[in-house]
Amino acid sequence: MEMSHPAYRGVVTGLYNTFWWTGTITASGVMRGSLNLSDNRTWLVPVWLQLLCSSIIATFILFMPESPRWLFVNGKEMSAMEIVTKYHGMGNPESNWVTLQEQNYRELLNQDGADKRWWDYRALFHNRASIYRLACNLTVSVFGQWTGQAVLGLLLSAVLDTAGIHNAIAQTNLNLGFSCLQFVMAICGAFLVDCIGRRRLIFFTNVTLGLIWFGMAIATSRHFQTGSVDSARAIVALIYMFKVVFSFGLTSVIVLYPVEVLSFEMRAKGFAFSALVVNAADLLNQFAWPVAFASIRWKTYIILMFWCFLQAVVGPYGQSIPSDEFQ
Fold it and tell me: pTM for the whole thing?
């Protein structure tokens, strides 16, 4: 976000998170291909490819420019403005975009602020405006993890079992198809996020996901009672619908909104603090949902339905005050 051009920052930051699916598609494809191997290559190939991707990132990060915001805060103003001029002003130091960003840096970045001290997190809590910003950040970040996407990710095999799809290759084929579809829909959502609006997109997405979970509960209970093929097909179709809606409405926004709602001084530490809270919240996905799914099976979908509706009601996106007016 700090490197993207101000005119396209919303779309570019949204696209940043959508490319998570490129890794998912690669992983799904590799796992699908590895199923045809009969020896240790079944797990060695995925592991080595993970190492390859990490090595590529570690190598090319050395050739990427430093964040101009970080340079400015740490007393390297000329270096910061050189980067802004090169990438945002097309080499023209008199560009309006360069002038605007320099003005913002001087007005909003405190070179003696808390973001200069790695241990100082007081900027996140020092007044009501900061606390409200952080609350909006954490709410959207955590809610994005609790819509049930993890249930259809970590527990996809168990979910497909409830639909009568037990074959490992068939499940892997579906997972690969889900990933490709989600990538396309996430890109569409990222390009439309400025047109639709962040809060409106999150609100209607949660409502729609709640309705999909309602349909999942009905279809799965029907399948358990009758074992009908039609109910199994409905479950698969609803999984596709869930992933389409989630990818379009939340994949880009759950990164974009939490970053934008923080002030310049709060942004780096606020996003780090948000990552810590999200990882803690993800413990629910890792340990609670598997137990619930093993104990009450399809009734887990009812819980998720009510939770999505609750997220739509209590989220900060129901407020009318814009994030840039919190102060």
Answer: 0.82
